[in-house]
Amino acid sequence: MNDVAEALDFYIDADDAYTPAKLPQGAVKMGGEKYPVRCPKDSLPILLGRIESRAPEIKSAEGYEDVIRQICAAVFTSEDTEKIIERIISPYEEKLSIAFLLDTVRRVYEKYGPYLDQAYEELGLENPTKQPTDRKAPTSKRAAAKKVPAKKASSRKPAAARAARA
């Protein structure tokens, strides 16, 4: 073996490094039932972007169910994912819907945001999914125009018009 190959002979246990599974778990209440949640992978926005781009191609019930399953799996256990899917599909669960699920997953992702930001910061990177929070209000927008009540039509003629007739 040459010297470079010997120098590069090493073992790294990446499983002991940063992992979202080591972060504290939270919980969400959906439709009256509480579900534990875990930190979603920082690639969740990529998954959601792919789903959004595929949306026009999804034509079957199985396709929609697969999308729901992928979204649920980002934060819920596999057992809870199946329960949630059944509840979303059920005609008796008025509140639980795909839109409700997306909003819940977004809110979970935002709660774990500081942990994800810290992991990126430790690597010397900026979280690519982080939304800027120090945006200044655009100065080019005009203030909304006030609605002024319309003037009542008057039967009185201006003084100049009366004077001209006299």
Describe it for me?
- It comes from Streptomyces andamanensis.
- Residues 143-155 have a biased composition (Basic residues).
- This is Tail assembly chaperone.
- Residues 123-166 are annotated as: Disordered.
- Residues 156-166 have a biased composition (Low complexity).
- The chain is elongated.
- It has seven helices and two strands.
- The protein has a two-stranded antiparallel sheet with strand order 1-2.
- α3 (61-73) packs across α4.
- By secondary structure, it is mostly helical.
- Residues 132-143 have low confidence and may be disordered.
- The protein has a domain at 41-122.
Brief sketch in words of this structure:
With 166 residues, this protein is mainly alpha-helical. Helix content is 43%, strand content 6%.
Outline type: elongated
Summed over residues and divided by their number, the pLDDT gives a mean of 75
Structural class by sheet pairing and helices: mainly alpha
Q: Numbering strands along the chain, what is their spatial order in the largest sheet?
A: 1-2
Q: Compute the number of strand runs.
A: 2
- Fraction of residues in helices? 40-55%
Number of helices in the DSSP assignment: 7
Order of helices and strands: HEEHHHHHH
Low-confidence stretches: 132-143
Radius of gyration: 29 Å
Protein name: Tail assembly chaperone
Biased composition (Low complexity): 156-166
Biased composition (Basic residues): 143-155
Region (Disordered): 123-166
